[in-house]
Sequence to fold (550 residues):
Amino acid sequence: MPARLVLGPLLRHVDATSATVWVETDAPATVEILGHRGRTFEVGGHHYALVRVDDLQPGTVTRYGVTVDGATVWPLPDDPYPAPAIRTVAPHDQLRVAWGSCRVSRPHRDPFDLPPGSDDEAFGIDAIQALAEELRDGPAEELPHMLLWLGDQVYADDIPPAIEERIAARDADRRGAPADQVADFEEYTWLYHDAWSTPAVRWLLSTVASAMVFDDHDVHDDWNTSRAWRRTFARKPWWEERVVGALASYWVYQHLGNLSPAAIDEDPLYARVQAHDGDVLPLLREVARQADEDPTTIRWSYVRDLCGTRIVVVDSRAARDLGSPDGRPRRMVDADEWAWVREQAAGDHDHLFLATSVPVVVGHGMHWLEAASEVLAAGRLGRGVAWAAERARRAVDLEHWSAFGRSFDEMAELLDDVAAGRLGRAPASVVLLSGDVHHAYVDRVGFRRDGTARSPVLQAVCSPYRNPLPPGQRRVIGALHGRPAWAAARALGRAVGVPDPPVGWRRELGPWFDNQLAWLELRGRTGRLRFQRSAPGPRLEDLGALPLAD
Fold:
């Protein structure tokens, strides 16, 4: 029987003249797209290929199909969506990038589509589903150049009913893993299939290039929050298989497609995978195990350059240095990774976007709480208070850049250097892009007045695609953005020795708590941020917009 297409095609990296397309098949096969071929590799009995398509023309739209061992497998003859397309970039194009984070996988029907709070299973209308429906009948020349996923593409600890049923029926040793969470590489493959195989989402992923980075729920809630968190989970009999399966599947389903063709050519792991005869799961398991133990063994961060704009996607989960008992400070990214980030931020770019799954700039009250929690959990007021601070850190997610004081200060310094033109010509704007917090907002970052001209610096946050907060949590977050919470948290922070932050910030847009996505719309050194929420139809409704450059 000929090999079949199981998942995909996913359009991943696209530049002016080339693209990569990812697929999964059910058997070893040769996959062909627009006359370019790729051979599958095997991971845990599953088969994948990343096909490189060259010789495209800048600023064009090319429809494509997929053949497997010579048989056309995509698009299907009765597919209601247009044939998949590759839209290449051109130097002077208007650049359009849709972005956001946090998407639980649930069916697109009642009660799952109902407004949050109306039913225990209600998650509202999926913004990704709404985006697909809005784009399907529009001109291909107006398709976004990229869809940026800033974490929690899958929820390993909040799985859909269909996956729970498969787990219950599975005859395997799950080492005591919770029945409502995935346990290993095999179950992760089910999760990705469920998230990416509905017709609208599958079409969108085949037609709009995707760039991705993980956050905690791709592995587990609060992943790598602290040394204490890692000790707690290391003692669980199921944890090693979970984290190894998470990182191995992330490399296959998300990371590999993030890389440019040039980066793939230079990637030693991909070369080993391609050269391996047989199943490479043991190889990827060992790589994943090493990456979990020592983040310097692999780099998950990467860069996308589009139409004069640079997007640096920073791994702010796996690359964390959680410090040491002898006083080595906690860092959101380890020292080697940070040196790489600074290097990538330098240069001559129309706009610079630094994408990190967790926000750098949060509400003032939350900033001071997080900064104080780091000091208290380190033992400033004794072991009893440290234990309570650690519990609070996990309970209310005090784990953004503000909770890593060394890294917050280093990021502020980098933003200042870039905006002031010390690392090359100053961009027209410098923007932090983040998700994670299940609401959307834009803050403007300010620096101490010293007579230096600086580019506008913004923190833009958009979350969730589909996983809205219940009303009670929305009210709490709203309160933390207020001045009374700011004053109280600042008093706590100063009492335990937290210094004032090196930058200030003020709210420009938001907060919004809908299922939502955001847009970067750029032409040369002008541009804007735009936010939309999902609505019945499904469709997208405008929430607000902000120019990027003064």
Q: What stands out?
A: The first helix runs from residue 127 to 136. The mean pLDDT is 96.
